[in-house]
Structures are given as structure tokens and as C-alpha cells.
Amino acid sequence: MLTEPLTRACDGMPGKRNRGSDNVRVLVADDERLLADTVAHGLRRLSMAVDVCYDGDGALERIGVNRYDVAVLDRDMPGHTGDEVCRSITDSQVGTRVLLLTAAAGIRDRVEGLGLGADDYLTKPFAFAELVARVQALGRRSAPALPPVLAQDGLVLDVGRHVATRDGRPLALSPKEFAVLHVLLRADGQVVSAEELLEQAWDEFADPFTNAVRVTVMTLRKKLGDPAVIHTVPKAGYRIGGTA
């Protein structure tokens, strides 16, 4: 549960105060469906790719298929518990960071959870802003360090503040447009395939045959303006910089 009403949780999140995400992919697993869905909705608004499930069996299935930067796990899920899922992640050494959620606030419970291999621990009820800050911190630890501000060809992406500009002009980007631009800038001029963009900026329900990537790149190009900086490489993907 959240410390603020569910209807206000997302409106009070950091993104409303110009703070953003590190574009991580997150698994949220909690049998409190309303809580899990609310958390996922809020994280997606910060340009994170989020998958959701409501029991430990579903969490293990998704972890076996997808590569997550952060897993947010309720300890008391039915089926396989969050503890068992956490142990499986630790044993597999896939590099996924784990944030355990629980209603048990005792020191012994926290120590036990961290002893399973969890990277962080948050007791219910919690403030959504705190959960976001912890997920962002774990996401930064799951991958090689990147500059907080990415810049190329007049584009500047301030990841921490969730702000994008071109030649000093503010860009009003949707969360998906921001995420796609982030992935392309991180590639530092290298080609990024549509499949890679779909993997890093969308969630598990994205249809691999969808035109979502093409449409998002098209709207992003319009917002970036001329001259074009996102170039299509035939049969390969997209890149920023170089020639068309």
C-alpha cells in the first residue's frame, strides 16, 4: 500500500517535478493488484519499461524470459514467495537488482530479506516517491555508469531532470519518445535495431510485429525538427548522427 491515496500517487511522483528515470526495465510482482498496477503506471510515466505479475510463479516465468534491471518483489506472494524469487535471481547471477516489499517492518525481517541477496528493502505503506528513488538508484547500479546528461548534434538529454532540448529549445516529448531518444543517444552513433528499441523502451506486451517503433520515431523526428538527426539505416535500424 502507498502512504498517499492511490488516486494521487502518480500525480505526486518525481516526474511531475522534472525529475526522471534512468530508462531501466522493471518487473513489479505483488499480489495486491491495485498496488502493482498503480506502481507500474507511475513508473511507465517516467519512461521506464515495466512488466507486471501478481504471483511468484509469474515472476519466475518472466525472469526466465526477459532481462530486467530491477525487480520489485512482494515477499508474501502466493505460490513461490518473493523470497524464493529473490533467491533464484541471486543464484542465476543475471545482474538484476532486487527491491523487496513487505508489511513486516522489524529489524530481523529486514536483515533476513537482505540476507537472501536483495539489494534494498522497503516496508509497506511507502511513499511512491521513495520507491521511485530506490528503483532509479538500483537501475544505475545494474548497468555501467552513464553520464547524467547525454549530448550529440545539438541534442541534450538531461536524464536526471527528464528534460530534453535541441539547440537550447525545450522538447515536449512523450515518455516513449524520451525513452527512444535516450536509447539512441546511449548508442553514441551506433545503429540500434527496431527490435532493440522495442526491448528497451516497451514492455512484454509489445507486439514484435507492431509499427510502434516506426510511429514513435516518426513523431520524435517531427518534434526534433530540421535538419534531421535520426537516420534510418536500411534493414538495420536507426542511429543519431552521420548521414542519412
What does this structure look like?
There is one protein chain. The protein contains nine helices and eleven strands. A five-stranded parallel sheet has the order 2-1-3-4-5, with helices on both faces. It has a four-stranded antiparallel sheet with strand order 6-7-8-9, with helices on one face. The longest helix is centred in the middle third of the chain and has 14 residues. About 7% of the residues have low confidence. It has 244 residues and is α/β, with parallel strands linked by helices. Helix 3 runs parallel beside helix 4. It has two domains: 136 residues, 3-Layer(aba) Sandwich (Rossmann fold); 92 residues, Arc Repressor Mutant, subunit A (Orthogonal Bundle).
Question: Average pLDDT across residues?
Answer: 82
CATH fold-level topology of the largest domain:
Rossmann fold
Measure the end-to-end span: 50 Å
Task: Tell me the number of helical segments per DSSP (H or I, 4 or more residues long).
Answer: 9
What order do the helices and strands follow? Answer: HEHEHEHEHEHEEEEHHHEE
What is the C-alpha radius of gyration, as a whole number of Å? 19 Å
CATH architecture of the largest domain: 3-Layer(aba) Sandwich
Structurally, the number of domains stands at: 2
Dominant shape: elongated
Spans of at least 5 consecutive residues whose pLDDT stays below 50 are 5-22
Sheet/helix structural class? alpha/beta
Question: What fraction strand?
Answer: 15-25%
CATH superfamily of the largest domain: Response regulator
Strand order of the largest sheet: 2-1-3-4-5
Main sheet, how many strands, which sense, barrel? 5 strands, parallel
